[in-house]
Amino acid sequence: MQDFLNGWGLTLVTFVPMLGALVLLAIPKRNEWSLKVVALGSSLLAALIGVFLLSWFDTSRAGDLQFVVDKPWIETINSRYIMGIDGISLPLILLTLLVVPLCIVYSFDHFPEPRNPKSFLTLLLILQTGMVGTFVAQDLILFFVFFEIVLLPMYFMIGVWGGENRRYASIKFFLYTLFGSALMLISFLAMFFLADGTLAGLDAVRTFDMRALSGGATAAIARTSQVWIFAGMFLGFGVKVPMFPFHTWLPDAHTEAPTVGSVILAAVLLKLGTYGFVRVAVPMLPEAAAAWAPVIGLLAVIGIIYGALGCLAQRDMKRLIAFSSVAHMGFVMLGIATLTPFGVNAAVFGMVAHGLITGMLFFLAGSMKERYHTLEMSRLGGLLKQAPRMGWMLGFCVMASLGLPGLAGFWGEFPAILASYSPAAILHQGVFRAYMVIAAVGTVLAAGYLLWMLQKTAFGKARKEFANSPDIKDVKRHEYISWAPLLVLIVVLGFYPRLLHEATDPAVRESLEVPSIAGSAQDCLDSDDGWTCFDERRTEIKQTQGN
Amino acid sequence: MALDVLGVVGFIRPHIDWHALAPELTLLGVGALLTTLDVLLAERGRNITPVLAGLGMLGVLVPIFTLLAAGVVGEPRVLFGGAYVVDGFALLLKGLFVAAGYVVILMSTHYVAEGDYWGNEYYGLMLSSLLGMVVMSSARDLISIFVALELLSIPAYLLATWRKRDLRSNEAGVKYYLMGVFASAIMLYGMSLLFGVSGSTILSEISASPGLSSGSASSAVVILGVVFVIVGFAFKVSAFPFHTWAPDVYEGSPTPITAFLSVASKTAGFVALMALVYVGFWERSNVYGPLLWFLAAASMTAGNLMALRQKNIVRLMAYSGVAQAGFMIAPLAIAGSSTLAADDATSAVLTYLVIYAAMNLGTFAVIMSVARRTRTGDVASYNGLFRTFPAMAVVMTIFLASLAGIPPAGGWFAKFVVFKALVSADNASGYVLAAVAAVNAVIAVGYYGKIAARMWFEKPWAASAEAVPEVASVGVSEEGASPDPAAAAPLSDSTQPIPAMVRTPLNLLPFSLRAALTITSLATLVFGILPFTVSTLTDVSLLSPFPG
User: Fold this and answer.
1) Whether the Cβ atoms of residue A240 and residue A180 lie closer than 8 Å to each other
2) A189 vs B457: CB contact, 8 Å cut-off?
3) Å from A191 to nearest chain B CA?
4) In this predicted structure, what is the pLDDT of residue B177?
5) Partners of B79 in the β-ladder
6) Rounded-to-integer distance, Cα B482 and Cα A155, Å
7) Are B419 and B437 in contact (CB under 8 A)?
8) From residue A170, how far is each of A254, B43, B139, B320, B383 by CA, in Å?
9) Domain boundaries, chain B
10) CB-closest option in A148, A156, A193 to B426
11) Can you spell out the DSSP letters for B306-323?
12) Residues A209 and A143: beta-carbon distance below 8 Å
């Protein structure tokens, strides 16, 4: 088994959904039952492989890549088919593998209009391949391809099954993300030409191998070039996260997308951006990351406050949750901006927690829309009376989302704030402490808008128009099945965060280490005189190269 | 004595490498056979000419493969004192031309047969135009380049007017002819200046001549010559601001010919441009560099912006073609910075050309299939295609994604190699052009994405359902004219009548068209998922194999 997983595990887990999609294409439209079974089956099969990967994953070496595949792919540009997972990617892959089958279960008997289960499920499975592929790819071009594959299915999902304004929302989503990734690709290429693979022990000078690029191959690139390259990646990943001021596509996309689309968007797609920062931007260009960190931190805290204020101004429940995503991703980015293992760990935890909680909130919003046919909060109310179980679930998720200790949301937010008290030594402490204060204010605002939302929708009496509505029923079976795992995980991770930390911590430390023949980047980040340290490191490497 | 003056006495027949010339000769033979059969069989030949033409094209692939097996890539064959070279570069392009020609013939078969056109000369003319292109891939001196250019252009002028009872087609042909001749004249003037400065027509000798290499006294003449020649080819590849003919000609020509012009003819322009830039003007990157830089940036930007406004699908593709041409010119603009960058740029342009051929031909095949049903070229006729014609919507989405550069369709790799070539120059102009290209790649999604949105998100187009049965009873319009459905005016409500010759029911796709769609969509996907299939082919150099 071990051998099999080493050779094929990651390839299978990535492409099984794609194979499922191909099979779906061959099944005629009227065989709805077999379409659903094949779709669910292939996503469950992928999840099963995921479980195998988890059980054979060696936690004691969580910092190293495991199940590595390395095969030639496009030889003329020395891009290879490299896949591997470590403690950072593992939780995100498992999250994806969990959420997609849940989404299929959720939509099993009621697809959003205009139905068409065949294309809906096909797109969902292609989407899954793109998402899992992004988390397992260890070659920049492969990473880029998977990163982009996600675009089209999501575009169609919003555009075909979305709400009234879906055309505008879908093209906006598409253009924003594509703009970012086009510039990101140029950055990747610039790095390809400027980095030196031999510094990281490769034979080839030019490489897209992410292991080498985050292992010191970029150490000799001049600081100005690094800063520019980082800028391109910053745009690419920042749009996806989304960071203020690139966030405007998100509320539109979330509001218009069908429930399942919103869930996937919140639970996984946004993580592609933050994952990009943790996996690509920061470890490959630690020096530029340090130069940009104050800006990232600033945009992050603006996002926290702006997202919170935006929430308070919303009348639509789904739009409110979307704005709360902007705020939550602000905490994640703040954690990354500190450039300390503690902060980045918090960020990875925040990613998973946000995926579970906000995904769950979007599920609830979708189910409420199905019952009330509106999400306008001024018309809602009395959910706790009409559908008490659902009302309690909503209350539970609201508590989790505002960061109540004991639930998963807490371990994303609180450590991120704590980490900005003492950022990496190279960064200005005063600035980050100011960020810390602002972010702390943001948590108060978060409690404000979330409780406001809960009050508006769940408390009080139902309005007349819905008082006797036959549509309003409590949680149904398929909803139980698709929500239970998420709710359980929110509690489990809340009480026992070590479960995740054990995997992420070694990997995060490893990713910030960035060794080179002239000392590691971590040492420079940790030194008060970090910039000189980076300069000396570069000079020393250049000298050895010269010899 | 008189004979001696004419040089006849001293004439020695140059050594002819028959093997190296076999592709051209085969093509010539097939073309001659078609013309003879046409004369002998007249109308009776209509059924077999497309088949023969198609088989002939496949036959031309045989000598291309034997040349490949003979190791031409490693040791190029140089003929006629350097005027004609068969190397890896030439061979790849010959293969590309023949493959593109084959797909165009597949697309033409039913179109010509059903459209009440004169079918026979059509294929003969197309083959002679292809012959010009195949010659162009090997031409390495000014005269052969010019002869090849005219050989490929003149039949194309005729083919553009093929729907001779339609005014639009007439307009297309005349416009194309006048613009084409004008461009040829400018180019010839430039060539004569270059010949005057260098004293030779062979590109490598021009490059080595003191006039070009040292940049001394005659520099104004050289600049003028280089600029004129490049401008002449800028017409051919429809680069901004020399693109004005393209939308009208594309709209008026029969759709398969539009596809032919937008792919094969454009490729031929690029081949000549590359031969000139790399071999002829190599020392003068200070002249062609800025010029091509401007052409690239302007074509991408202007083409995309104008495409955003189009209401007719063929016109939209014309402007998209202008923008794509900009992408292909871009690597050439920075090629002069180093030999390494030059080789990178060659591969980039070739890769782009190969992928572009697959995706653009495919797009036109879809346009034909859709127009066959809807009898119009209005972009609105793509509304709701996903519900009325799902398979076609999926295929079109693949091509649109490819044109827009979204993985896993092939176009992403084409854009990628262009970015790579631009960044590899590692200078400001390269980076800026890469940024311009990146922004343009996003703008392009504005219109490609809009078509996709129409196909998937909108309600089905109403006119198609109502118009078809109604018009079918009316039959052919009075003059017996059968205008090209894809060119029908976008604003007029009326759809075009269905011609009388239709043999396959309109809701079924003819086999040949289906074959064309299959070939192009498979190629597009394979290039995208396994990019090495194309990158190993295009990993050739123009600089190294050339003597001197």
Assistant:
1) yes
2) no
3) 10
4) 92
5) B84
6) 39
7) yes
8) 10, 53, 48, 22, 16
9) 18-460+510-535
10) A193
11) HHTT--BHHHHHHHHHHH
12) no
d(CA B412, CA B410): 6
Q: Are B103 and B57 in contact (CB under 8 A)?
A: no
Give the pLDDT band (50/70/90) at residue B506. Answer: low
Per the structure, the complete domain to which residue A63 belongs is given by: 2-546
Tell me the percentage of chain B whose pLDDT exceeds 70: 86
User: What's the pLDDT tens digit per position in A333-344?
Assistant: 999 999 999 999
Interface test with A, best of B347, B427, B439, B457 (most A CBs within 10 A): B457
Residue to mutate among B350, B420, B456, with most A CBs inside 10 A, is: B420
Q: Exposure of B7 by Cβ count < 10 A (0-12 exposed, 13-18 middle, 19+ buried)?
A: exposed
Inter-chain touch A74–B535, beta carbons under 8 Å? yes
Helix B266-275 to helix B88-114 angle (10° resolution) is 160
DSSP state at residue B242: S
Instruction: Give the pLDDT confidence score for residue A182 in this predicted structure.
Output: 86
Q: Produce one character per residue of A338-373: b if its CB has 16 or more CB atoms within 10 Å, e if not.
A: bbbbbbbbbbbbbbbbbbbbbbbbbbbbbbbbbbbe
pLDDT band at A385 (very low <50, low <70, confident <90, very high): confident
Asked if A152's CB is within 8 angstroms of B445's CB, the reply is no
Over residues B426-476, the pLDDT tens digits come to 788 888 999 999 999 989 988 998 898 888 888 887 754 444 433 333 333
Peptide bond into A245 cis (omega under 30): yes
Q: How confident is the model at residue B529 (pLDDT cuts 50, 70, 90)?
A: confident
Kindly tell me if the per-residue pLDDT of B374 is higher than 90.
no
A210 neighbors A143 (Cβ within 8 angstroms): yes
Task: Domain count for chain A, please give it.
Answer: 1
Q: How far apart are CA A246 and CA A249, in angstroms?
A: 7
- Say how far apart CA B248 and CA B266 lie, in whole Å: 16
Calpha distance B326→B331 (Å, rounded) = 9
* Structure tokens, B363: 């797009």
B111: helix, strand or coil: helix
Cβ within 8 Å, pair A178-B407: no
Q: Which of B326, B456, B320, B444 is nearest to B396 (CA)?
A: B456
| CA angle (B408, B413, B418) in 5-degree steps | 155
